[in-house]
Amino acid sequence: MIEEEIDIGILAGLPSLLFAAAAVAEWVFDVPGAAVLFVKSAALADWNVLALIVFVFAVIKLMADLGGHLGARFLADPEVPA
Q1: How confident is the model at residue 9, as a pLDDT?
Q2: Any alpha helices (H) in 29-46, and if so which ranges?
Q3: Integer-rounded Cα radius of gyration of the chain
Q4: Is the pLDDT of residue 7 over 70?
Q5: Which span out of 45-49, 54-58, 67-71 was modeled with the highest average pLDDT?
Q6: Greater model confidence, 21 or 40
Q7: Is 7 helix (H, G, I), strand (E, B) or coil?
Q8: If residue 58 lies in a helix (H) or strand (E), which one and from where to where?
Q9: Does position 28 have pLDDT exceeding 70, yes or no?
């Protein structure tokens, strides 16, 4: 039980770590991407672009969560219709 809580706690910080790693990788390899666009927009106080990027990533996260929940439900009991 305690091990599961520790694992969940570690995974909770994973998205911010991945975003930071993506921003650094895009910056180092000079590849334009959403992470560098987000950092530059924050530095220049371009709130419209920031809001759009957050919205797009929120939609992607919600769709991934939905897919994960439906997949887990199907794997747990394939007889139950969704």
Answers
A1: 56
A2: 34-43
A3: 17
A4: no
A5: 45-49
A6: 40
A7: helix
A8: helix 47-76
A9: yes
Structure tokens at 20: 């930071």
Q: Is the dihedral of CA 63, 64, 69, 75 positive or negative?
A: positive
Residue with tokens 């650094």: 24
Kindly state the tokens that stand for 33: 């991407």
Length, in residues, of the chain: 82
Nearest to 38 by CA among 26, 72, 79: 26
Residue 6 pLDDT more than 70? no
Amino acid (one-letter) located at 48 = N
The answer to whether 27 and 40 are in contact (CB under 8 A) is no
Q: Determine the Cα–Cα distance for residues 66 and 3; give it in Å rounded to an integer.
A: 25
Q: How far apart are the first and last CA of the chain?
A: 29
